[in-house]
Amino acid sequence: MTCLFCKIIDGTIPSTAIYKDDECYAFADIHPQAPVHILIAPRQHIVSLAETDADDRELLGHLLWAATEIAKSKGLSKGYRVAINTGSDGGQTVDHLHVHLLGDRPLGWPPG
Fold first, then answer.
1. Confidence (pLDDT) at 110
2. Which residue ranges form the domains of the chain, and what is each CATH number?
3. Active-site residue 100, yes or no?
4. CB count, 10 Å around CB of 25?
5. Please, are residues 111 and 83 in contact by the beta-carbon 8 Å criterion?
6. How far apart are the C-alpha atoms of 72 and 52, rounded to whole Å?
């Protein structure tokens, strides 16, 4: 296994879990772009959002639900951003689908 996030999820690379369940694992981004910057990755290796299909609908919904639960637990009542970078032009740097949860500061638009 060479996937960085798969190694984090299986514990080969140490991390501090922010949230975990049977379907996903969430941990702090090592290069945070906001005071709260958490990555939520499915335990199942999926390269990117572009690689998903109809069979992944429930998992994709679960990742967004997990993001809202984490946001609540972090006290992000003033708002937060959820983003999925897809492919190199979309800013994806790790080839494992993951959701970014950013918050605890005003986030401008457009983001990039």
1. 87
2. 4-103 (3.30.428.10)
3. no
4. 23
5. yes
6. 27
Q: What is the 3-state secondary structure (H, E, C) of the chain?
A: CCCHHHHHHHCCCCCCEEEECCCEEEEECCCCCCCEEEEEEECCCCCCHHHCCHHHHHHHHHHHHHHHHHHHHCCCCCCEEEECCCCCCCCCCCCCCCEEEEECCCCCCCCC
**Count of other CB atoms within 10 angstroms of residue 102:** 21
- Tell me which of 62, 96, 98, 100 is the catalytic residue: 98
pLDDT at 112 (0 to 100): 65
Neighbours of 43 (CB within 10 A): 15
Q: What is the pLDDT of residues 73-101, one digit of tens each?
A: 999 999 999 999 999 999 999 999 999 99
Distance CA 59, CA 42 (A): 8
